[in-house]
Design goal:
- The chain is of the alpha+beta class.
- It has eight helices and seven strands.
- The protein has helices at 6-13, 19-27, 31-39, 75-87, 91-101, 143-149, 153-158, 171-180; strands spanning 44-48, 54-61, 64-71, 115-120, 128-136, 186-187, 194-195.
- A hairpin with a 2-residue loop joins β2 and β3 (64-71).
- The longest helix is centred in the N-terminal third of the chain and has 13 residues, at 75-87.
- The chain is elongated, with a radius of gyration of 22 Å.
- 30% of the residues are buried.
- Bound molecules: zinc ion (ZN).
- The site of zinc ion (ZN) has 8 residues, from loops.
Length: 250
């Protein structure tokens, strides 16, 4: 039985601790315990989106234990990436261009030393794009050691769900940056949402990713607004994609 450090015991006892961390720290109260489990063939990983969506894994790379974190762009930044990916005719070229563009979506002062832009396969509309940091777990015993020596810092903050004015680019800003990197990102001129005409549910129709029920531009004028106030919330027109200057898709 692994000894549970005091800070982890307190964290586990707190009613504010999220369930994913309770499960993780119960199973692996120390880095040492996690490394031992990986050596025994267990998959050691926790996904959380408490402030920022990220996965923390302990893995073996060339036989050496490594703590790996992948932070994922969320919300409107993710929408811009996925729609640009879908709008491109060649997934491999799109993937390479997105990996190249990812750092440019971040505020300029973000230090990406030791961080790689990565793509992870998935069965959804697009693969997952993220920022990956790996640090050796050799010599680390407690999670406190790890957190204090290797804080996630500014990258964690700029990818937060909470807008601080110092976040990853979203919406039309993200679309402009992706287009500058030869990606066919498209924004709606009315509502600013990122659009695709290649959503599998709506091929040939410009929709944003959440629109399983078809396009419903929030900024579209409803000519009958005055006539049926109670119904107005349910009415929206087509989006207005800013595609005029779109470069030909290769
Ligand atoms: Zn719109």
């Amino acid at each position: 039985m692994t000894e549970v450090p005091l800070d982890i015991a307190e964290y586990l006892a707190s009613p504010d601790t999220l369930p994913e961390w309770v499960r993780f720290y119960r199973a692996y109260p120390t880095v040492t315990a996690a490394v031992q489990a990986v050596g025994d063939g267990e998959s050691v990983a926790v996904f959380t989106s408490e402030h920022t969506a990220y996965v923390q894994r302990v893995v073996l790379i060339e036989g050496k234990p490594v703590i790996e974190v992948v932070l994922y762009p969320t919300a409107q930044a993710r929408d811009a990436l996925v729609t640009a990916y879908l709008n491109h005719s060649d997934p491999e070229t799109a993937t390479a261009a997105i990996l190249h563009a990812l750092p440019h979506l971040l505020p300029e002062d973000i230090d990406l030393t030791g961080v790689d832009c990565v793509v992870e396969p998935g069965n959804g509309l697009a693969p997952r794009f993220g920022f990956r940091r790996r640090v050796s777990a050799v010599g680390l015993h407690t999670w406190r050691d790890y957190d204090e020596l290797h804080p996630l810092g500014d990258l964690y903050q700029v990818l937060s769900w909470h807008s601080t004015g110092h976040n990853i680019a979203e919406g039309t800003d993200a679309v402009a940056i992706l287009r500058a990197h030869r990606l066919p990102a498209v924004g709606c001129e009315a509502c600013g949402e990122s659009l695709t005409s290649r959503h599998p549910s709506w091929p040939g129709t410009w929709v944003c990713l959440s629109e399983e029920y078809g396009p419903r531009c929030e900024a579209s004028d409803d000519p009958y607004r005055e006539l049926h106030e109670l119904d107005a919330a349910g009415i929206g027109g087509p989006h207005n994609p800013a595609t005029n200057d779109l470069e030909p898709v290769v």
